[in-house]
């Protein structure tokens, strides 16, 4: 089954005067939809848009893998360990909240900031928090490239490791027309960022997403330059 969710149908939240606008692919915060709380292990996929100087003040998380991909502008991350990291377009970060962590995120640049923040269910709860980042680990080029994985021995090794053995994140940033296979997994999530994508009879525009359940052998095609993220997931959340 392939289910397409359009960018225009995402819930939007914006606090007047804050310079923050969020677009939610899943039920999030006060926007509760019991039929759209997750897909596979993916709990959230938020497109955040921050004006210069705007940001999310320090706040807590726990027992969540938070993966961020910067689309435009400059993102500044600060956390309770006194760490400050700035990432530009193509920058990737992973915050393993573990038993509890506090952090803040802001637009550190002079131009609008746009990033995708994705929340993943971890395979173990508790433990110390951990943070890692990579500046542009997958510059534009052919094919899908591995960004993050929790598998014991992926080859090649990913830029970032996840605390979830049943999940991996890829990016496609082709410069010319082409196609390629999607990972074979019970749950595959494709999020369009730039350009147009085609999955069978389905066309994805920027901001659209496709949820593939038990669809091995599916390929993705692009007629020109594009950018898209792909989650490969082999399990659903377990609370045992």
Automatic annotation (TrEMBL):
Residues 80-105 are annotated as: Disordered. InterPro entries: Pirin (IPR012093), Pirin_N_dom (IPR003829), Quercetinase_C (IPR041602), RmlC-like_jellyroll (IPR014710), RmlC_Cupin_sf (IPR011051). Residues 17-120 form the Pirin N-terminal domain. Residues 187-233 form the Quercetin 2,3-dioxygenase C-terminal cupin domain. Pfam families: Pirin, Pirin_C_2. It comes from the Bacteria. Belongs to the pirin family. This is Pirin family protein.
């Amino acid at each position: 089954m392939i289910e397409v969710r359009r960018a225009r149908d995402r819930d939007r939240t914006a606090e007047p005067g804050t310079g923050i606008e969020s677009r939610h692919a899943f039920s999030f915060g006060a926007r509760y939809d019991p039929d759209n709380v997750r897909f596979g292990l993916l709990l959230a996929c938020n497109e955040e848009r921050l004006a210069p100087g705007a940001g999310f003040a320090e706040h807590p998380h726990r027992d969540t893998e938070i993966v961020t991909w910067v689309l435009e502008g400059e993102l500044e991350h600060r956390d309770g360990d006194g760490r400050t990291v700035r990432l530009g377009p193509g920058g990737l970060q992973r915050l393993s909240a573990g038993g509890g962590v506090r952090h803040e995120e802001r637009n550190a640049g002079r131009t609008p900031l746009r990033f995708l923040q994705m929340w993943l269910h971890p395979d173990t709860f508790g433990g110390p928090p951990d943070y890692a980042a990579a500046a542009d680990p997958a510059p534009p080029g052919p094919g899908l490239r591995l960004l993050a994985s929790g598998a014991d021995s992926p080859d090649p090794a990913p830029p970032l490791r996840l605390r979830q053995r049943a999940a991996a994140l890829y990016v496609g940033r082709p410069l010319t027309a082409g196609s390629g296979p999607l990972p074979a997994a019970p749950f595959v999530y494709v999020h369009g960022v730039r350009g147009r994508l085609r999955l069978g009879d389905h066309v994805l525009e920027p901001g659209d997403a496709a949820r593939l359940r038990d669809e091995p052998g599916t390929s993705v095609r692009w007629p020109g330059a594009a950018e898209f993220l792909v989650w490969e997931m082999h399990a659903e959340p377990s609370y045992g």
